[in-house]
Amino acid sequence: MVQTAITPFSHRLKSPLTKQSINVLQINLGKRCNLACTHCHVEAGPKRTEELSTEICQQLITLINQFPEIKIVDLTGGAPEMNYGFKPLVEAARSNGKQVIVRSNLTIYFMAGFADLPAYCAQHKVKIVASLPCYLADNVDKMRGDGVFDQSIKALQWLNKLGYGQDPDLHLDLVYNPQLPQGEKFSLTADQRSLETAYKMFLQEHFGIVFNQLLTITNIPIGRTKLYLQRHNIYSSYLQFLADNFNSSTVEHLMCRNELSIDYLGNVYDCDFNQMMNLPAKTNDGETLTVSKLLEAGKLDLISEVQTANYCYGCTAGCGSSCGGALT
Ligand code: SF4
Ligand code: SF4
């Protein structure tokens, strides 16, 4: 394929990407994870040690208590359940009536010391968003490691027994992300609604599993996905493919517009992808932010423009992509 210089993402926008009122706080509790998936944008794994400190956790609890405009507290990682601060943050957010989302890899429930998690999440009515990149065992194990599919199935059955996926207070969503491309034959993430129907039929028929929604997420070319693409010499062509499929109607729905993403050190970003790429959020004066600065200022709306980069094409290609699935 002949490579042409990619149009910078910011040039494709009709106007700068403005920040709206903040109502979502996404906290990345750290990089510890029991898995080490090939596509992980966090480059998380069992050997990583970075995680939230008691001091930052306390600041986050104060933030949650102080700002009623935060409606959703979204906990991610690594495996968020494995990193310091998970339960204190769940309890602070729930006692303030906020929705709590945990992005779970499901297999964590089978690690020593974590078997209480499904019942704990049910007790606190935590919404579980669980990765299951395919409903076929081979594809999942290739991406996430041997035996991950079987454990994920057992975990979903366990959650179903507790009422997840059926009780309106116990919401269970699954996340699909495509297999990493083998060559330059790229395709857009499949249509969310049709894929959800296929997942529901297959999982119900073979394993008696029910869930609420399927969220389709595009592989953003950063972290291990970027390393993989570079190793296969297809990084630039993948980025170009995403840029060629830029869909301007996704822009108004981008998740970075109404959320703050916080890292384990308390730094503030516009989204988890920018966090992983060390692209911090900035105020009008060009200052970076931390949780303690937000507390000092007494307000959350200090950012007028979202920081963007070319990997933002991953969120705006085709139907779009976000932590909440497709955008259009
Ligand atoms: S993708 Fe999720 S489960 Fe896999 S290594 Fe990364 S954080 Fe862990
Ligand atoms: S990567 Fe996606 S969510 Fe993050 S700033 Fe870019 S468009 Fe927004």
From TrEMBL:
GO terms for molecular function: catalytic activity; iron-sulfur cluster binding; metal ion binding. Residues 27-164 form the Radical SAM core domain. It holds the Pfam family DUF3641. CDD domains: Radical_SAM. Keywords: Iron, Iron-sulfur, Metal-binding, S-adenosyl-L-methionine. Residues 188-326 form the Arsenosugar biosynthesis radical SAM protein ArsS-like C-terminal domain. This is Radical SAM domain protein. The lineage of its organism: Bacteria, Bacillati, Cyanobacteriota, Cyanophyceae, Nostocales.
